[in-house]
């Protein structure tokens, strides 16, 4: 197998954003700014929020953090979003998902000003993406495109199978790949797909985003396919200090004696999300300054 480690891909993006930010500020603009809203204290969400803050600090972005208790009222979160939508010193707004039960995720996402929706989850941005207009592209699919570019994996004329149809990964990924310029022939699978192996076995690129370890193994793909593993699954492991280890949605070890190019977990797609968010935040700042 050929391991497509993504540390250098993410570092490359951060360097590019740092350079562009420097130029942007040298032209007399205020530093880009990101407001992050966290509801509750889910440990994984807290880690993601901390990483976003660290990335902002590294790039010299302004960063505003808002924390609500687990049992916060939906109306209070909406009221904060109203304020952030209007504030001139806020370029990007991100509400960390998932939200606790009792808060309607769609309602919250739809409340974010699309011009500040740096996660790219609002219906306006998803709609623009679908019709190939300028928009904020969701960070995970955007990061995957960056990985493909970095490793010179061409998508034009290639058969790409996306396993999973979520609004944050599968659907935007498929919508991007089918656009003019990327020109892939895209198949999107879900749990009702009768024979997953039949879909993947002649694919040039397989993007697996199911949230289930071992959804595919080497027997599902051609010997020289590219596999992008989006999954992040916690597997109980008493031998680890934290009591768990992370694994993807593909059975990584099974690819050992193949020529498959595959992103590892950890060390793969997950490393891209924060740098792509920083890229979107800089983009938001640029657009708002005209
Ligand atoms: P999700 O909302 O749970 O969606 C999973 C999708 O996979 C659903 O569409 C489901 O089909 C489909 N699916 C599940 N098992 C399947 C199977 N055996 N065959 C075919 N399709 C199957 O998950 P998500 O939010 O897209 O996330 C997917 C994975 O990516 C998770 O492990 C998540 O932690 C990870 N993730 C990673 C990043 C990152 O930055 N690395 C970012 C986001 C998500 P149905 O629609 O029929 O149920």
Automatic annotation (TrEMBL):
<dbReference type="GO" id="GO:0006164">
    <property type="term" value="P:purine nucleotide biosynthetic process"/>
</dbReference>
<comment type="pathway">
    <text>One-carbon metabolism; tetrahydrofolate interconversion.</text>
</comment>
<dbReference type="InterPro" id="IPR020630">
    <property type="entry name" value="THF_DH/CycHdrlase_cat_dom"/>
</dbReference>
<dbReference type="InterPro" id="IPR020631">
    <property type="entry name" value="THF_DH/CycHdrlase_NAD-bd_dom"/>
</dbReference>
<keyword id="KW-0521">NADP</keyword>
<keyword id="KW-0658">Purine biosynthesis</keyword>
<dbReference type="InterPro" id="IPR036291">
    <property type="entry name" value="NAD(P)-bd_dom_sf"/>
</dbReference>
<dbReference type="GO" id="GO:0035999">
    <property type="term" value="P:tetrahydrofolate interconversion"/>
</dbReference>
<keyword id="KW-0028">Amino-acid biosynthesis</keyword>
<dbReference type="GO" id="GO:0009086">
    <property type="term" value="P:methionine biosynthetic process"/>
</dbReference>
<feature type="domain" description="Tetrahydrofolate dehydrogenase/cyclohydrolase catalytic">
    <location>
        <begin position="6"/>
        <end position="119"/>
    </location>
</feature>
<feature type="binding site">
    <location>
        <begin position="164"/>
        <end position="166"/>
    </location>
    <ligand>
        <name>NADP(+)</name>
    </ligand>
</feature>
<comment type="function">
    <text>Catalyzes the oxidation of 5,10-methylenetetrahydrofolate to 5,10-methenyltetrahydrofolate and then the hydrolysis of 5,10-methenyltetrahydrofolate to 10-formyltetrahydrofolate.</text>
</comment>
<keyword id="KW-0554">One-carbon metabolism</keyword>
<feature type="binding site">
    <location>
        <position position="232"/>
    </location>
    <ligand>
        <name>NADP(+)</name>
    </ligand>
</feature>
<keyword id="KW-0486">Methionine biosynthesis</keyword>
<keyword id="KW-0560">Oxidoreductase</keyword>
<dbReference type="GO" id="GO:0005829">
    <property type="term" value="C:cytosol"/>
</dbReference>
<dbReference type="Pfam" id="PF00763">
    <property type="entry name" value="THF_DHG_CYH"/>
</dbReference>
<comment type="similarity">
    <text>Belongs to the tetrahydrofolate dehydrogenase/cyclohydrolase family.</text>
</comment>
<dbReference type="InterPro" id="IPR000672">
    <property type="entry name" value="THF_DH/CycHdrlase"/>
</dbReference>
<keyword id="KW-0511">Multifunctional enzyme</keyword>
<dbReference type="InterPro" id="IPR046346">
    <property type="entry name" value="Aminoacid_DH-like_N_sf"/>
</dbReference>
<comment type="subunit">
    <text>Homodimer.</text>
</comment>
<dbReference type="GO" id="GO:0000105">
    <property type="term" value="P:L-histidine biosynthetic process"/>
</dbReference>
<dbReference type="GO" id="GO:0004477">
    <property type="term" value="F:methenyltetrahydrofolate cyclohydrolase activity"/>
</dbReference>
<dbReference type="GO" id="GO:0004488">
    <property type="term" value="F:methylenetetrahydrofolate dehydrogenase (NADP+) activity"/>
</dbReference>
<dbReference type="Pfam" id="PF02882">
    <property type="entry name" value="THF_DHG_CYH_C"/>
</dbReference>
<feature type="domain" description="Tetrahydrofolate dehydrogenase/cyclohydrolase NAD(P)-binding">
    <location>
        <begin position="138"/>
        <end position="288"/>
    </location>
</feature>
<protein>
    <recommendedName>
        <fullName>Bifunctional protein FolD</fullName>
        <ecNumber>1.5.1.5</ecNumber>
        <ecNumber>3.5.4.9</ecNumber>
    </recommendedName>
</protein>
<keyword id="KW-0378">Hydrolase</keyword>
<keyword id="KW-0368">Histidine biosynthesis</keyword>
